[in-house]
Amino acid sequence: MPVLIRVSSRVQPLAVTARIIMLALVAALTLILTKEPGQLRWIALLLVAALPAFIAPDHRLFGPLGRFAEVAVTGLAAGSIALAADRSGTVSAPGFGAEAVLPYLAVPLLTAALRRKPTEGAALLGVAAVALVAGGTLIGGASPSPITQPGFLAASGQWLVLGAIVTFAADAMRQFMQPAEPTPQPYAEATRLLTQLRSVARSLPGATLDPGGISEHLLEELRMVAPGDRAAVLSTSGGGRLVVLAQTGADRVDWETTLDSESAVAEAWTTQQPQVASRSQARSHRGGDVSSLVVPLVAGVRTIGLVILEADVSSAYPSGVVFDVTGVTEPAALRLEAALLFDDVRSLATNEERQRLAREIHDGVAQELVMVGYGIDNALATLPEGTEETAEELRTLRNEVTRVITELRLSLFELRSEVDRNGGLAAAIAEYARTLGTSAGLRVHFTFDESTARLPAATEAELLRIAQEAITNARKHAGASNLWVTCTVDPPYAEIEVSDDGKGFADDRPDGRYGLTIMAERAERIRGRLKITPRHPSGTTVAVVLGSSAKRDSVRDSVSAPEGE
């Protein structure tokens, strides 16, 4: 509709101006060629037919009727004016006097073309042809009639062809004459949008765009509007399932996270309307009276998440409560969408930078170190006899180069490691621990307890990096023989624990505090807690905990793997 309004606003003044000019032109030509002021009655009729174009150009009935009337009057007038011009002797060919009025045909035809009405334009051409035949045959009663005169036929055919060109070629001509759209500049546009995002992020309360924090704040607001026993905010994940961004409730709640099931969750997501149900949206609910309310978080036309509220009583969410809840969730949807988009941009940028660094290290310093190793090997092979001391130094240097290359390869593996959306966080940590365990001769023990539900992708990535740092520190600095890796994921709760039986974390360990600072910053970014404690009788335990402890009975899959397994 806005496009049609803009087109109409441009067409109307153009059509009015064209009619005024053409009416004046055909009036002057008619008077010059016929020398009969009485023929101006046709111009008066044209003015009457054009009145809808001046008064109600956008009327769905009067506008088209006015244009058909203009075409009919022009065709009928052509025969009469042609006869009058023949009588005056001002034209060289009989019937050619129709040229005085036929230029007016272009006005209604051009108006229809500019309004993008090709069907109406074709109908106007048909009416014009019929009116010309009628005007050339019936008007004036002269013999021979204008329709039989070459000049009339030439003039009529000329303006019908020009009218057809105006009708069917106007759209193509308009597109051809439009200025070319500027070539898209994706990087310039991305820079502009990211600059705006940075400015907005700095102006937000607390300067934060954290989906988990926004979700927790939303649940706090909803608690004041609709008290209940359990609540959660869910959003989509890369794996096509829902992930829990935040939840409240005394016990662990196993929420429905699939969108292909017959549930209020799937219905709310599809219809974008609040759904009230008399059964729980949790898989592990023990039964009894329960009321659940699922409210979609809609930003624009897209569903970005869901809010689930539950109470252990029946009929806890009447229409009035639903109205109050949607009043809170509607503005929160936009805030959450901004946070999720910012999270995606940050994750994409981080992953791209990690891949870029991995490529540069592999193609740069790693290759150069390999060449240094080859040079040392060549030097050892060409040493003369009696230089055992030099050979020993070169062998020591070669071993050191080999060690550095091994470290670089492990660093490349760390940079390229990602959480597979199908494999999960535990699988990614296990793969990394196995690889490093093999390189260091460590006996690695795994204990995994991972729910089918998933954490947000950005959270899983941060937890993987923390586990990688803890495992790397144990391999490089602890001097351990065993490594214990425990991974518990029960969204929104998660705990990753890495323990070793090495010498412990003393102040004189060469790794310093930089690795700990990085882990602490990552934990803080996802609102987690980093804990470093001594392990009895020796070693260190590094753990990161996200959310509150899950309370459920489950069977843990414990795997004790020999070196590198």
TrEMBL record:
<dbReference type="GO" id="GO:0016020">
    <property type="term" value="C:membrane"/>
</dbReference>
<feature type="domain" description="Histidine kinase/HSP90-like ATPase">
    <location>
        <begin position="458"/>
        <end position="550"/>
    </location>
</feature>
<keyword id="KW-0902">Two-component regulatory system</keyword>
<dbReference type="Pfam" id="PF02518">
    <property type="entry name" value="HATPase_c"/>
</dbReference>
<feature type="transmembrane region" description="Helical">
    <location>
        <begin position="91"/>
        <end position="114"/>
    </location>
</feature>
<feature type="transmembrane region" description="Helical">
    <location>
        <begin position="121"/>
        <end position="139"/>
    </location>
</feature>
<protein>
    <recommendedName>
        <fullName>Histidine kinase/HSP90-like ATPase domain-containing protein</fullName>
    </recommendedName>
</protein>
<dbReference type="InterPro" id="IPR011712">
    <property type="entry name" value="Sig_transdc_His_kin_sub3_dim/P"/>
</dbReference>
<keyword id="KW-0418">Kinase</keyword>
<dbReference type="InterPro" id="IPR029016">
    <property type="entry name" value="GAF-like_dom_sf"/>
</dbReference>
<dbReference type="GO" id="GO:0046983">
    <property type="term" value="F:protein dimerization activity"/>
</dbReference>
<dbReference type="Pfam" id="PF13492">
    <property type="entry name" value="GAF_3"/>
</dbReference>
<dbReference type="GO" id="GO:0000155">
    <property type="term" value="F:phosphorelay sensor kinase activity"/>
</dbReference>
<feature type="transmembrane region" description="Helical">
    <location>
        <begin position="12"/>
        <end position="33"/>
    </location>
</feature>
<keyword id="KW-0808">Transferase</keyword>
<dbReference type="InterPro" id="IPR036890">
    <property type="entry name" value="HATPase_C_sf"/>
</dbReference>
<dbReference type="InterPro" id="IPR050482">
    <property type="entry name" value="Sensor_HK_TwoCompSys"/>
</dbReference>
<dbReference type="InterPro" id="IPR003594">
    <property type="entry name" value="HATPase_dom"/>
</dbReference>
<dbReference type="Pfam" id="PF07730">
    <property type="entry name" value="HisKA_3"/>
</dbReference>
<keyword id="KW-1133">Transmembrane helix</keyword>
<dbReference type="InterPro" id="IPR003018">
    <property type="entry name" value="GAF"/>
</dbReference>
<keyword id="KW-0812">Transmembrane</keyword>
<keyword id="KW-0472">Membrane</keyword>
<feature type="region of interest" description="Disordered">
    <location>
        <begin position="546"/>
        <end position="565"/>
    </location>
</feature>
<feature type="transmembrane region" description="Helical">
    <location>
        <begin position="39"/>
        <end position="56"/>
    </location>
</feature>
